[in-house]
C-alpha cells in the first residue's frame, strides 16, 4: 500500500483546509519545501492539489507546480482545476505521472476514454469526492449521483485508478469511515486510493486490510498528529 502526502496549494502557499472551505485554510508555507521534505522522509509520491484551480482559477500556481515537476523524478499525481482534455494533456506532457479528473469526469465522462487511449489508463485517475454516498462536484458544492455508480462508469471508460475522498470526514482528523471504502472496493477492480480522515497508523492498517491501494495524508500529517514514518510502517507491515 502506498502513502502519498498531500501538498495542497492555494495562492502559492501550502495549505490544509477543513471540509474544503478556503476560509478555513491553515497556511504551512512553501509547497516545494514540503514536497521535498515528504520525499526525503520516504513518501511513495506526492499528491498535489491546485486549490485555486478547483475554485476556478486554473492557471494560478501553474508555474510553481511545473517547476517542481521538472526538478524531481518522484511520482506526482495532480488534481484541481483540470477542466478539459487540453488541461489534462498539458499536465501529462509536462511530466505529471497521473492526473485526477473529478468535476470534468462527471460533466464529460468520455474525457476519461479519450485521455486513457492517448496516454494510457495508468496515468488517468478518476476522482470520487463523496458526501453521504453521492459524488460532489464543483468544489464539493453540487451532488451528482451515486458514488458507486460513478465509480463503475469511470472504470468502464478506462480510468486506471480511482481517488475516493470521503468529504464527510475530510480535514477533521477524526479517523476514516471504513464501510463506504469497502463498498467501493467490492464494486470495482481498479486500484483505489483513499483520502479523507486518515489520522493514524490504525487507519492505514484498516485500509490495507480491506484492499486499498494507497492513502493520501493531509491535515493530520501537517498538524503533527501523526508522523509519516509511522504511516509508512503501517502500510508496509506483513510485506
UniProtKB/TrEMBL annotation:
EC number(s) given by UniProt: 5.3.1.16
Q: Where in the cell is it found?
A: Cytoplasm
Q: Which GO terms describe its molecular function?
A: 1-(5-phosphoribosyl)-5-[(5-phosphoribosylamino)methylideneamino]imidazole-4-carboxamide isomerase activity
The entry's active site is 8 (proton acceptor), 129 (proton donor)
Q: Which Pfam families match?
A: His_biosynth
Task: Report if keyword Phosphoprotein is assigned.
Answer: no
Question: What does the sequence similarity comment in the record state about its family?
Answer: Belongs to the HisA/HisF family.
Family matches, as NCBIfam families? 1-(5-phosphoribosyl)-5-[(5-phosphoribosylamino)methylideneamino]imidazole-4-carboxamide isomerase, PRK13585.1
Put simply, this protein is called 1-(5-phosphoribosyl)-5-[(5-phosphoribosylamino)methylideneamino] imidazole-4-carboxamide isomerase
Give the organism the record lists: Methanoculleus thermophilus
Amino acid at each position: 500500500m502506498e502513502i502519498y502526502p498531500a501538498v495542497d496549494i492555494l495562492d502559492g502557499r501550502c495549505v490544509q483546509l477543513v471540509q474544503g472551505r478556503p476560509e478555513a485554510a491553515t497556511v504551512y508555507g512553501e509547497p516545494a519545501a514540503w514536497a521535498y521534505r515528504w520525499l526525503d522522509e520516504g513518501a511513495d509520491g506526492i499528491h498535489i492539489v491546485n486549490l485555486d484551480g478547483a475554485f476556478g482559477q486554473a492557471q494560478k500556481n501553474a508555474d510553481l507546480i511545473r517547476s517542481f515537476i521538472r526538478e524531481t523524478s518522484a511520482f506526482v499525481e495532480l488534481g484541481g482545476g483540470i477542466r478539459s482534455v487540453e488541461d489534462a494533456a498539458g499536465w501529462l506532457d509536462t511530466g505529471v505521472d497521473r492526473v485526477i479528473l473529478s468535476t470534468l469526469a462527471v460533466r464529460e465522462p468520455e474525457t476519461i476514454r479519450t485521455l486513457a487511449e492517448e496516454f494510457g489508463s495508468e496515468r488517468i485517475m478518476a476522482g470520487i469526492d463523496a458526501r453521504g454516498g453521492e459524488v460532489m462536484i464543483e468544489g464539493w458544492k453540487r451532488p451528482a449521483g451515486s458514488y458507486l455508480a460513478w465509480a463503475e462508469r469511470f472504470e468502464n471508460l478506462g480510468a486506471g485508478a480511482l481517488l475516493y475522498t470521503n468529504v464527510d470526514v475530510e480535514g477533521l482528523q477524526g479517523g476514516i469511515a471504513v464501510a463506504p471504502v469497502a463498498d467501493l472496493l467490492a464494486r470495482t477492480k481498479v486500484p483505489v486510493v483513499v483520502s479523507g480522515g486518515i489520522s493514524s497508523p490504525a487507519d492505514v492498517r484498516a485500509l490495507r486490510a480491506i484492499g486499498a491501494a494507497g492513502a493520501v495524508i493531509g491535515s493530520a500529517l501537517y498538524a503533527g498528529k501523526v508522523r509519516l514514518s509511522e504511516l509508512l510502517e503501517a502500510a508496509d507491515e506483513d510485506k
